[in-house]
Fold these 2 entries.
Entry 1:
Amino acid sequence: MGKGDSSLPRLPDPKATAATPDAPAPLPQPKPRKRRRRLAGIFVLVVCILLGGTVVGGAWLYYRLSGNVQTISVETAPSPEANEPVNILLMGSDSRTGKGNKGYGLDAGRSGERSDTTILLHISADRQNATAVSIPRDTWVRMPACASDGVAGTYDKFNTAFQEGGASCTTEVVTELTGVPIHHVAVVDFGGFKNVIDALGGVEVCLNQPIQDPDSQLDLPAGTTLVDGERALAFVRARKTLGDGSDIGRIKRQQAFLSSAIRKATDTGLLLNPVKLFQVLDTATQSLTVDESLNSLGQMRTLVDSLRAIDPANITFVTMPFTYRADNANVDVDTVQADKIWQSIINDTPWPPPVSRGPDGKKVVVAPEEITVRIVDASGSQAGEKASRQLRALGFSISEITQANKKRGETEVSYGSGLQDSARTVAYITGAPMTEKDDIWTTTLTVGSDWSSVKSDVVVGNSKKAADETSTQATTAAEPICAG
């Protein structure tokens, strides 16, 4: 049944956007410029999926809107059951064709479509958590045959897959890169972006310093500013005058914007006004193309109805871990760190995992790589050497191994003044108690006859090392973040 079914109550024309008494005054709009659109479609889809289910009568709403959504043929994993996790690959189409797109200009020397924004969205089986992993467009990856003239194995930038083979080819790349089963695929455009933002009454953005960006015609002061749809689009496109000027920095700003928009949408009266919300989603869904299975009313209704319990604090944004290439512009996948995220998605466990706690109940905040340990072997069986090898494998530095004067049964961590945080990490990993002593100036592991092994699952919170690994830092939709 389509949009024109006369058996359903007639709703106002979604094109009508009469102002409400409490609507904010119109904000000045910059002249449309080129290439301002990476996040737009992603926001549209996240709003549709994560917020649509909070509306009373959501099934009826999606029944009416299903006629707007276009479909695409993509090979995906079988659709999961209602009590199983869901993985959706979101792609922002870089096409300049279509209604509302031409005003943003054409990229010189480029034809066809690219996907400058790709997010792997994981929704937990209990529908309590969602994790959105951004994959940088400039990541060098192995290309399948669909992206390299029928010859698999060449390497190119990630977004080449969409240009050469479309959504289906990008799905193949992501599946090979992550090992994660992709259940659904959605390609989105920015046609409904500005209307969604304006319907929310604008969204707040925060800057650490003023911005005057000639390319995007954006002029904003430092601090928090309420922006309308036009300036929001400019904000998520600006690059050279914000932060380090990189695409990676822009991804983080876009994640912060998505978080702000989700907070605004869950706090606004929009969700309590079905007619107004219909107008927003009617526009948004006209910019949406999905795989054939997700377009079925039953699949979309089941997914949306199951997402009502997700709180913004349980929606996590993270960028795929990477390392810079020699040109300092393109990046390679940090496979060691990225595999941890992919495995958490496959296992349907929270990301980031909860921070480990020492025997004193406090969080582990110092990484093994930052700690030097002195080992005293009191095992009577040379277990100190075994402990040294195991600790070194985890990144610890070992200053020395000495033999104790007498054998003891229990392994112990002792530490001098100011070394409690380091000792807590060692105590967690070894499972030993920790004790402060006045006569030592190091973190010391006394290995007893009970020594067996170490834990390798330590999760460190707020360490200097973790702060340096910016790509692995996760934020939630509940966290206000300032850019620049």
Note: The mean pLDDT is 78.
Entry 2:
Amino acid sequence: MELADYDVVTAEARYPSHKSALARELNETVCGQIIERTKNLKQWIENKL
């Protein structure tokens, strides 16, 4: 998942018509990947500060 992918997830969650499709895509594996990549992104940002 790239940084731009986070925006897609956020935008899709805003609209009720997109929520069911998003819920189908966000299974345990995908959520785990998002969490891991978010941790990596956070660490990268902290290293840049």
Note: The CA atoms of residues 25 and 31 lie 9 Å apart.
